[in-house]
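quick one before i forget lol
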Amino acid sequence: MNPFEMVVAIVAITAIASVVRAKYGVVRRHKGEDFVSRGPDPEAERLQAEVKALKDRVAVLERLATDGSTALEREFDKLRDRD
């Protein structure tokens, strides 16, 4: 086997290994250790819910900043009732 064929074989093996690792959800952490992610992460779900709540609050604040004063008073009342 000449050096060119060896390089092609190494690249092919590495590519196949990467595809297999991605298919089975193996994620490489720092320092080279492997971690298998099987299923939803509760921390990620909690953070997604928190981001959704924050986006809703930002939408309300944007509406408050652009609406008139009567609409502003109604939104303040809604926010007071919410908490």
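fyi Strands lie at 26-28, 34-36.
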